[in-house]
Amino acid sequence: MSLFSALSIGASGMSAQRTRAELLVENLANVETTRTPEGGPYRRKDAVFQSADVESPFSSVFNLAKEAGGVEVADIVTDSRDPERRYMPGHPDADSQGYVAFPRVDPAQDMVDLMGASRGYEANVAAIGAIKDMIQRSISLLS
User: Fold this and answer.
1) I want to staple 72 with a disulfide (CB 3.0 to 4.6 A). Which of 26, 52, 63, 137 is the partner?
2) Total structural domains in the chain?
């Protein structure tokens, strides 16, 4: 594996973690959303990762093939569980029995997941920084 391919792998990890973080923030922002354009309460979303082949931007110059090792978002799954029902008869979205359907979003769990996504992103940034340093040292050795 070349150092340039390693940069592409780190970038794919950063992109996947960014998508995951965006979904987690969306979940947290909609924890009390009882009405969506699709009808009903907001449905929690989560990213599913899978390994992916990455291509270095320099692969055509150096005649390198695609190398496995990156990550991508394979799917965004929507929670299909029944919504949480709370008795709130005065609420505008209450049904005939006075219950309101709320999303099944656990803010504590989503905050922990968001911290994990943030640390994953930071780890990829650190890896890219180390690779950049190795490239700079290689260039300085050649000069």
Assistant:
1) 52
2) 1
- Tens-place pLDDT, residues 111-127: 999 999 999 999 999 99
Report the C-alpha gap between 97 and 3 in whole angstroms.
63
- The full 3-state SS of 99-125, as one line of letters, equals EEEECCCCHHHHHHHHHHHHHHHHHHH
Of 74, 78, 77, 58, nearest in space to 66 by CA: 58
Tokens of 93: 């979205």
The range of the structural domain enclosing residue 33 comes to 3-142
Integer Cα distance of 43 and 57 in angstroms: 38
Q: What is the pTM of this model?
A: 0.84
Q: What is the dihedral of CA 25, 99, 35, 29, to 10 degrees?
A: -10
The pLDDT tens digits of the residues spanning 26-65 come to: 999 999 999 999 889 999 999 999 998 876 655 555 555 5
Return contacts of 49-52, CB within 8 angstroms, 24+ apart: 49/16, 49/20, 49/73, 49/74, 50/74, 52/12
